[in-house]
Design goal:
Structural class of chain B: mainly alpha
Largest sheet of chain B: none
Number of helices of chain A: 5
Distance between the termini of chain B: 71 Å
CATH class of chain A: Mainly Alpha
Helix content of chain A: over 70%
Number of strands of chain B: 0
Helix content of chain B: 55-70%
Number of domains of chain A: 1
Strand content of chain A: under 5%
Number of strands of chain A: 0
CATH topology of chain A: Arp2/3 complex 21 kDa subunit ARPC3
Distance between the termini of chain A: 14 Å
Number of helices of chain B: 19
Largest interface: A-B, 16 and 10 residues
Strand content of chain B: under 5%
Oligomer: heterodimer
Largest sheet of chain A: none
Order of helices and strands of chain B: HHHHHHHHHHHHHHHHHHH
């Protein structure tokens, strides 16, 4: 399989896994106090910037059922893709990169769906979402991607 | 060049597959990084199959392009490995500079910062061995003990074993095998053992003692190959027969039965037949039957086949 094909396949798998995990755990995937387990997939972007598109698409599809409507499935899809790209740009410092990704996503969630969509206070929402994001992204990097990333994604970019 | 045009280059190259000289000539024109990675890699693949002397300077320039900036243009060194494959049959002693650079390239790209140029070092060693045997011998010995040998592929140490074996440099290979406790990947140790077919018999006996009762399965496979392919004929047949009778590992059992049954040496086939006659285990008998069906005609094996035919095996097993 060519590297190009592998990138496309992995992108599809990551986007699909993100949607499935989010919807399967929907009760804890939305709202101000959330623990979206699918976020654990996002540090994968450290190995390939194309995965930013996969997460953008995954977020769009997963959030179609969100109670906050387009603020969640349009704005957050863009925020997730941009946050993932920033993470990839900072890949030389992986822990910092995923932490920045977590901060950007948390800010996006607090501003767009929760504040504009749901009228909730930005700062409180940001702190609440950031806690779970840091656990999932930094933990995901350490527990999953630090070992699996080089094996799965090597040579895909 | 725009993405669409780049795709057209690859399509045009693929369309020439029925005319190898024309395809190789067109591939030559694609050896420019501006054409995009996909087109360059496709051209390199064609040139590896249909080498062109005229490609040499372009391949050198391309290598230098991808090696620049500490290899960030070619993370994982896949493109540079492909360049060396295309260069292999047209390389000259004047290319030693590039090959020495490649054979000593170590890269640790983010985010994992794990070494990723093992395949490049191995590939460069092969080309170097064809350009300058003497220098290659030294670098092969160095790569045999490469601290960054990939656990999954065994590269570049596996290539180093092959190069040293081709040059009949047995001592470094022997050293690597007997020092396996120091962390060489199991596949590398297995290949070292496999290559020691010219080792003196007392050395082989010591290797049987060291590896024969261990639990390093790849090393056992290497040991079987060594014993059955030794230059002075099959060795350690008693050990092999005993292994067949005592092992509980059906994969190893199947492998050993297969290599003994297909050995060009009658003594190996006879040893298998002798060991098989006393086999009682149902699973092993089943494996033996399968192997014997695939084995070439041989009187000893034919007798064993009759002996363990289901009517017999069913009663005995």
């Amino acid at each position: 399989m060519s590297n190009h094909t592998r990138t496309i396949v992995y992108s599809g798998v990551l986007a699909a896994a993100y949607v499935v995990l989010t919807l399967a755990l929907a009760p804890i995937s939305f709202l101000q106090i959330q623990f979206r387990v699918s976020e654990i997939l996002k540090p994968a972007v450290l190995w390939n910037p194309v995965f930013a598109v996969a997460f953008g698409i995954g977020t769009f599809l997963a959030n179609l059922t969100s109670p906050f409507g387009a603020w969640d499935f349009v704005a957050m899809a863009l925020v997730d893709a941009v946050a993932a790209l920033v993470c990839w740009w900072m890949r030389r410092w992986p822990i910092v990169a995923v932490a920045v990704q977590a901060v950007l996503i948390s800010a996006g969630v607090a501003i767009f769906p929760l504040h504009f969509g749901g009228g909730l206070p930005i700062v409180l929402s940001f702190v609440s979402v950031l806690a779970s994001q840091l656990i999932l992204l930094v933990g995901g990097y350490y527990l999953v991607w630090r070992k699996a990333g080089p094996i799965l994604f090597r040579g895909t970019r | 060049m725009r993405g669409g045009n780049k795709k057209e280059l690859v399509s045009k190259l693929a369309a020439l597959r029925d005319d190898p000289p024309a395809q190789a000539a067109y591939a030559l024109t694609l050896l420019d990084a501006k054409n995009g990675l996909e087109a360059v890699r496709a051209a390199l693949e064609v040139l590896a199959k249909h080498p062109q002397d005229e490609a040499r300077p372009k391949l050198r320039a391309l290598y230098e392009h991808y090696a620049a900036h500490n290899g960030t243009r070619d993370v994982g060194a896949y493109t540079r490995s492909a360049i060396l494959k295309a260069l292999r049959r047209v390389a000259r002693p004047a290319d030693t500079d590039i090959l020495l650079t490649a054979v000593t390239t170590y890269e640790f790209p983010p985010p994992a910062f794990a070494e990723e140029a093992g395949m490049l070092r191995g590939g460069a060693l092969i080309v170097l061995s064809e350009v300058d045997e003497q220098v290659a011998r030294y670098f092969a010995t160095r790569l045999l003990a490469d601290g960054y040998t990939e656990r999954m592929s065994g590269e570049p140490a596996l290539t180093a074993v092959q190069v040293l074996a081709t040059q009949e440099e047995w001592l470094p290979i022997y050293f690597c095998a007997v020092q396996s406790a120091n962390g060489a990947p199991a596949e590398v140790v297995a290949d070292c053992l496999r290559q020691l077919t010219a080792a003196p018999l007392p050395v082989v006996q010591e290797l049987v003692k060291q590896f024969g009762e261990g639990e390093n399965l790849p090393a056992l496979v290497g040991l079987f190959d060594l014993l059955l392919q030794h230059r002075s004929g099959p060795q350690g047949l008693d050990f092999l027969a005993n292994f067949l009778q005592t092992t509980h590992d059906m994969d190893l059992y199947r492998y050993l039965c297969m290599v003994m049954a297909t050995s060009p040496h009658a003594s190996a086939r006879e040893a298998l037949a002798a060991a098989g006659r006393y086999e009682l285990g149902r699973a092993k008998l089943e494996v033996l039957r399968e192997v014997l069906e695939l084995a070439p005609p041989d009187p000893a094996l034919a007798e064993l086949r009759d002996h363990i035919a289901p009517s017999h095996g069913g009663k005995r097993g």
